[in-house]
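S1.2 Input.
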Amino acid sequence: MTDQIQLRDVVETDLPIFFEQQLDPEATQMAAFPSRDRERFMAHWTKIRADESVLIKTILFDGEVAGNLVCFEQLGDREVGYWLGKEYWGKGIATQALAEFLQLIETRPLYAHVAKHNVGSRRVLEKCGFSISGEDRFFSEILGNDIEEYVLVLNAEPN
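S1.3 Output.
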């Protein structure tokens, strides 16, 4: 599958695809993250694309836009996140894309947050070397209640 997956810089024509992917009700429930309307979505992407501290890549699968990866700073820690269109789930795409993305990021430790019920996403992170370092909880607008999440960390490679 290695030649089927590529990472490249985000281009303007990716944004409508990302927008549609984040509207999927099953995906938003799995991520426990609400979708944005078009105006808020485009404003968010304009902001993160202009921020030089943020690393963003588009995931291509067989030449099609499958999703995106992002590395950003939050509360003093570097974090990674990703979103994959539902039609691309369960094919190993997220795992391979994240593994390639991590090679572009020198910062360690690196963190990720995942809703406890999102077993697939947790497995992607674990396959890429992340391990559970703690737990947290947040209110999910999409689910209308508190969501328990795992905090995962990717530490420096042992010497």
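S1.4 Remarks. Residues 38-50 form the longest helix (13 residues).
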